[in-house]
Design brief:
mainly alpha; elongated
């Protein structure tokens, strides 16, 4: 596969020394508590005070590491991206797979994650926060951009006849098809029991689409708008 593009979160929030030390036990404890609060209680409970309660700390101890909630969101989402990066790229590198199998791993792995309570609730609550907070919206967009870039690299290798603009549209369609499943077939959603079939169809049809769609098909679709 061609070298993957790298997407990084922009450090627009203020930073404090040591905040990114992954060996910092207290920071890890706060991040895990933040994840539990967001998944189990929702965006409305995602406050420094509630997170401090969840990890059994004084709010002042939490704010010593994260003086503003925006800083916590920044590190929280960077941590999420880094974990996903290690898992997805680790599988691809370990297996040494070609582009079609790599794309199948990304699609299938994403849909497997959507089935879980953690990922369904996490992204629904992040969307809710993003609707009212431009800072969170930017960070959530960067997560989607990261996955989109992985998909785009696979599409470009599978279908060299496509222009970069065509590749972007096809990758966006694949990303949207995956993420749109959250509200219909994610954890606790109406068609969750159908996810195995949806996954099988998505992997086959979306990989086939990436491999076979022609430039004129992409441009014809866009001209219907």
């Amino acid at each position: 596969m061609r070298k993957q593009k790298t997407t990084k979160l922009k450090n627009t929030a203020p930073q404090r020394p040591g905040i990114y030390s992954r060996g910092a036990e207290t920071v890890d404890m706060i991040l895990e508590a933040a994840l539990r609060v967001l998944v189990e209680e929702g965006a409305s409970a995602f406050t420094l005070r509630r997170i401090a309660e969840e990890c059994g700390m004084q709010v002042g101890n939490v704010s010593r590491h994260f003086p503003r909630k925006e800083m916590l969101v920044q590190v929280f989402l960077e941590d999420l991206v880094n974990r996903g990066d290690e898992r997805i790229k680790g599988d691809i590198r370990r297996l040494g797979v070609p582009a079609d199998e790599a794309l199948a791993l990304i699609i299938g792995g994403s849909l497997d994650a959507i089935k879980t309570k953690r990922m369904t609730h996490l992204f629904i609550e992040l969307w809710a926060m993003a609707n009212h907070d431009d800072f969170v919206a930017e960070r959530v967009e960067m997560i989607y951009r990261y996955v989109h870039d992985l998909i785009e690299s696979c599409v470009a290798e599978l279908n060299p006849a496509l222009s970069p603009a065509d590749v972007e549209v096809v990758a966006l369609y694949i990303s949207a098809s995956i993420e749109g499943s959250t509200m219909l077939a994610g954890y606790g959603k109406p068609w969750r029991a159908k996810m195995p079939q949806l996954r099988a169809i998505a992997v086959k049809s979306l990989v086939d689409l990436a491999r076979t769609i022609k430039p004129e098909d992409v441009r014809g679709l866009s001209s219907l708008a």
